[in-house]
Amino acid sequence: MKDMNSEGYTTADGRKIGGVLMEMKNITLRFGGVAAITDISFDIRDGEIRAIIGPNGAGKSSMLNVISGFYVPQEGEVWFKGYKRGPMKPYQVARLGIARTFQNIALFDGMSVLDNIMTGRLTLMKSGLLSQAMWWGGAQREETEHREKVEKIIDFLEIQSIRKTPVGRLPYGLKKRVELARALAAEPKLLLLDEPMAGMNVEEKEDMCRFILDVNDEFGTTIALIEHDMGVVMDLSDRVVVMDYGKKIGDGTPDEVRSNPDVINAYLGVSHD
Ligand SMILES: Nc1ncnc2c1ncn2[C@@H]1O[C@H](COP(=O)(O)OP(=O)(O)OP(=O)(O)O)[C@@H](O)[C@H]1O
């Protein structure tokens, strides 16, 4: 990483990263007496791949849910695109340009791959039922545009051959790819990935890694992910936040994090599987 400032920085591999897209300021989140997150601050820069890692129960999922707007922290502030974000409904978050995948795949098993991916565009669709009835040509044109965008994503993620297959019949790795496709269909500015490699074999992990890098490169999508697999995270990410027992114990490039003694003690020295 070179010349980190408010305008951005340049990664070791020469990519230009922009200014702050999202900022978490002193976030504290409690469930009854349990503090899942204690006073954590960090930012996510425009165009970067940012990982949040940590042992079981460290608070990663809780943090992803704060970023996605699903949880509202008791203390602290969330800033996105220069505005302080208040409590929001999921569709409002989607309209802001934030999309996510889930650890336990959340797709419609009985529906085809294509139809599942189309659901990702729902928040972008202007035509409701009434306007479709009154303005049929316009609605058709809109439908065609949505289909074209979705077909582009299908090509990009190399899932043309399964576009008509019901999702329930697909192997796990492909379901994960379809979920990524659906999230991308919303054309997010910030894409949140919840343990994208969980449960995958080595080959599936390599594929997923390649697609995440390609999405970032091709669409310029900023990506924040939580992940257990240390190796994958270190290969993929520009910067990494490390959590342990709800606190932030490290934040920096993969190399910086790897050599941080607190991180080594809390995370790397322990087996978590
Ligand atoms: N809905 C909830 N109600 C009560 N406690 C919760 C809830 N969600 C999380 N917690 C607690 O908050 C702490 C952080 O949990 P969280 O799931 O965020 O960690 P994690 O790092 O994602 O763990 P894992 O890697 O096992 O998924 C844990 O002590 C957990 O038991």
UniProtKB/TrEMBL annotation:
Indicate the segments forming the ABC transporter domain, all copies: 22-270
Coiled-coil residues: none
Q: Name one GO molecular function term.
A: ATP binding
Pfam families per the record? ABC_tran, BCA_ABC_TP_C
The UniProt entry, under InterPro entries, shows:
AAA+_ATPase, ABC_AA/LPS_Transport, ABC_transporter-like_ATP-bd, BCA_ABC_TP_C, P-loop_NTPase
Keyword entries, A-Z = ATP-binding, Nucleotide-binding, Transport
Descriptive protein name: ABC transporter ATP-binding protein
